[in-house]
Design a protein that fits this description.
The chain is of the alpha/beta class. It has one domain: Rossmann fold (3-Layer(aba) Sandwich). 46% of the residues lie in helices and 14% in strands. A seven-stranded parallel sheet has the order 3-2-1-4-5-6-7, with helices on both faces. Strand 4, helix 4 and strand 5 form a beta-alpha-beta unit. Helix 1 crosses helix 8, helix 4 runs parallel beside helix 5 and helix 6 packs across helix 7. The longest helix has 27 residues. 44% of the residues are buried.
Length: 268
């Protein structure tokens, strides 16, 4: 299927690994040019090298997105790359697990850090690149949310709250800019095989004194019983859905939340 992405330009944040990296890979395969962004310059360079993109179709921009100033710096660099052309696609995949533990164990710093990265960062990035997204009369914005946004867990409430905020933020944007041709949607994964969940399982294996594979298996059975496939998802399985939402094939999809969770959310 031709997804109509040839010649389009996409900005992908959180692009040095996991879902963001695989999204960039698929966008490149579909003929788009990609601006790849993440926090660490070295890991970003290594990620870009692994993409082995055609010449002129991949650019990297290091940005931590923790402040308005950082987002504005990203915006300036993106505008330099675009040279007056529109930014056709924004995929915001950057995020962290953030503060974990029971509610009474998490202080203000834990809340602020998590909300800054997982909610304010997508707001700041969108504000910074919105003029470029609105420039061409055709656009797509896809935000990574989570199953946690609609099915919260008691040991990661700040993350759940942030991702619920992302859903509301994206829905509001979808009602504001769709008539200009900018369609906005979310994708909500559950327990995907990424560095973030690797770190979670390493912590679990240490705390429970068990092997890594056993930590994954027991987490699935104890904490995610509705993931009927009985495994972690692969990042490319999420990226497939993201790239569809970025494409011409999703021309009547706006304000939606696509779950990629093997049934983890226990409701329709």
């Amino acid at each position: 299927m031709d997804l109509g992405l040839t010649g389009r330009t996409a900005l992908v944040t959180g692009g040095d690994s996991g879902i963001g990296w695989h999204t960039a890979r698929l966008l490149l395969e579909e003929g788009a040019s990609v601006i790849l962004s993440d926090l660490d310059e070295q890991s970003l360079a290594e990620a870009a090298a692994k993409l082995d993109a055609p010449e002129g179709r991949l650019t990297t921009v290091t940005a931590d997105l923790s402040t308005d100033a950082a987002a504005e710096s990203l915006s300036r660099r993106v505008e330099e790359i675009l040279e007056g052309r529109p930014l056709d696609v924004l995929v915001h995949a950057a995020g962290i697990t953030g503060a974990q533990g029971a509610f009474h164990e998490i202080d203000d710093e834990g809340w602020v850090t998590t909300l800054t990265t997982d909610l304010l960062a997508p707001v700041r990035v969108t504000r910074a690149v919105l003029p470029a997204l609105r420039r061409g009369g055709w656009g797509r914005a896809v935000f990574l949310a989570s199953e946690d946004a609609v099915q919260p867990y008691g040991d990661e409430i700040p993350y759940c709250a942030a991702k619920a905020g992302v859903l509301a933020f994206a829905k509001g944007l979808s009602q504001t800019y769709a008539r200009e041709g900018l369609l906005v949607n979310c994708v909500s994964p559950a327990f995907i095989h990424t560095p973030m969940t690797d770190a979670m399982m390493e912590k679990r294996s240490e705390e429970e004194d068990m092997a890594f594979d056993e930590a994954v298996e027991t987490f699935l059975s104890d904490e995610r019983p509705h993931m009927e496939l009985g495994r972690r998802g692969e990042p490319e399985e999420v990226a497939n859905v993201i790239v569809f939402l970025c494409s011409e094939a999703a021309s009547f999809v706006n304000g939606s939340n696509y779950r990629v969770d093997a049934g983890s959310v226990a409701t329709i």
